[in-house]
Amino acid sequence: MATANKSTGLQIALVFTVMATIIALVVAFLQYRHASESEIQLAADKTERTKAESELRTATADLQTLKELLGFPTAEVGKAQQEGDNTVVGQTRKLMAEVTPGETAPTVDATLHAASAALTQLRSELDGKNSSNLKLTDRIASLQTEYQKLVDRHDEARKSAEVDRNAAQQTKEDAVKEKEKELVAREEKLQALQATLQQKEQEFAQFKEVSTKRTAGLETINRDLRKESDQAKKISFEVPSGAIQLVDADTGLVWINRGSADALRKGTTFSVYKQINKGVARGVQDIKGSIEVTRIVSPHQSEARITKAKIEEPMVAGDPIYTPLWRAGMKEKFAFVGLIDLDHDGVSDRDVLHELVDTADGEIVDEVDDQGQRHPGNGNITVATKFLVIGKIPDFTEAKPNEAEAFKRIAEQKTKMVNDAAENGVRVVSMEDFLNYIGYDPGRRIWRPGVTEKWNLRSGGEGNVARPDRAKRPESGGKTSGIFNNNNGQKMRESSGVRTPANQ
Fold this sequence. Notes:
The protein is an alpha+beta fold.
């Protein structure tokens, strides 16, 4: 039993083993078959892949060739509608826009055709320009030929001119050499003369220094001597301006022998001299008084009023009259320096002085004003100047601060003008003597140039002082004192017109 069971087990085991082997074989066959099909498919895939890789390599090479043709070998291709970036498509579209601006060609081919058409047109235009250029070139060649002819003629003329210039230059150089020789000789002579002149100048400078010192001393002595002589002698070279013809002592009027024919003007004042005198304008000792012309009567007669007189020396017919301001047929010229205060009231009377001179047809040719300024600045005292009149020369050391500089300038100008007068032989007189010579009396109420006030008897008799109201004044009864009556009843005797010896 045991053996039978054992054999059965072996059989079953053998069956299982055979079945397993068969199954393994079947499985192995199936796997082999699947592997063979896979190998076949793999071979086919490999072949397809190899073909695809070959086509890819060809396409990649073609793409690289196209990129190189387009000029972008290293850039990415990019999207079809891409523009403005660094891809091949973007750069190509940008380049297309630059090649055909304003065109809407969507492809490179269209762009190239458009560019080709434009290029053809430009070539046509260029051919036209070249044709014009050829014509212009021919014209330029023709002009250059003409220009060359002109240049040749100019060169010939220049060469001829250079020959002439060289000849002239040589002649000039020869002349210059001769002049240089003469110049050297003259320079040598000039140096000798300059040496001599320098020596003479040194000698002259020494002589001038000695002469200047001597002249200054002599001028000082001469000035002092002249001053002493004038004070001692008071020589006058002046002549009377006219004479009194008639005197009316009652009315204070005189008539003189000068009138319209002598160019005498109303308002001219005269000093009246004694008939026996030592010379007019010599001094004031021979002056009797003064008169002022009030009316021109005829060509050689005028009426004047007595403005100042001496009781002990009344004016009579034949007395000579004189004023330095006026001379028949001439315009007298004067110079003034110093402050002008004619009536001694502390107020400048320079305008009055100017009116007096102008009224008598005189002229002030040189003057120093109250600020010390001379007019004209360089002076104008000449031999034709009649008098240099010296007004008040203020002391600038005692002046107010605001007047010191002006007073100092007045003193300086006075010294200069006196020296100018001495050099030109002009007589120097004081303002007081000058006013006496012209017959001016600042103390009397007389007519003056420019004064329009009317004078009457009341204003002349009563003056300018305040008066009480006329209604309150006591009036005279018209009776006179008995001492003025003729108690003897006799008539008063009339004068016979004969003076006693005491009155002669």
